[in-house]
Automatic annotation (TrEMBL):
Residues 34-83 form the Orc1-like AAA ATPase domain. This is Orc1-like AAA ATPase domain-containing protein. One of its GO terms (cellular component) is nuclear origin of replication recognition complex. GO terms for biological process: DNA replication initiation. GO terms for molecular function: DNA replication origin binding. Pfam families: AAA_16 (PF13191). It comes from Xiphophorus couchianus (Monterrey platyfish). PANTHER family: ORIGIN RECOGNITION COMPLEX SUBUNIT 4. It comes from the Eukaryota. Signal peptide: none annotated.
Length: 142
């Protein structure tokens, strides 16, 4: 009976690892970081809903779960109607977007503003943060 249980547990571990590595599937909620999860979720929610100006720096050793924590929070927040209407996600990679000019071009592409701005590259984010050049929107860059 113990052998069957051990095989079942081993199979579950393999299944979890396969989901995480091959399908990049995150657990519903990261374990062991409940306080950080709550604090960061509240901060991001206030930023999206109330337009608070916040900056966050998440630090830790490689593989400690920084990205997993952020992605799980964004997944949760994107399901809340109040947050959903104010949150635009832009994903940048420091290896690809190596300077401000390239990063602004990528932000423009991901926000689908190419038809609005043409080939111009902005010197700052001010113009990107306005829709139809008439009304500013709340910004939350992550």
């Amino acid at each position: 009976m113990f052998g069957l249980s051990k095989r079942k547990t081993s199979g579950q571990v393999h299944q979890i690892l396969r989901k995480r590595f091959c399908h990049q599937q995150l657990p519903d909620k990261p374990e062991g970081v409940e306080a950080q999860h709550k604090h960061l979720a509240e901060l991001l929610k206030r930023t999206a809903v109330h337009g608070e100006s916040n900056s966050v720096l998440i630090v830790g050793p490689r593989g400690s779960g920084k990205t997993m924590l952020l992605r799980s929070i964004l997944r949760e927040l994107s399901q809340e109607t109040e947050v959903q209407k104010n949150l635009l996600q832009v994903h940048l990679n420091g290896l690809l977007q190596t300077d401000d000019r390239i990063a602004l071009k990528e932000i423009t592409r991901q926000l689908q503003l190419e038809n609005v701005v043409g080939d111009r590259v902005f010197q700052n984010l001010k113009c990107l943060c306005v829709r139809d050049y008439t009304a500013a929107i709340k910004k939350c860059f992550i």
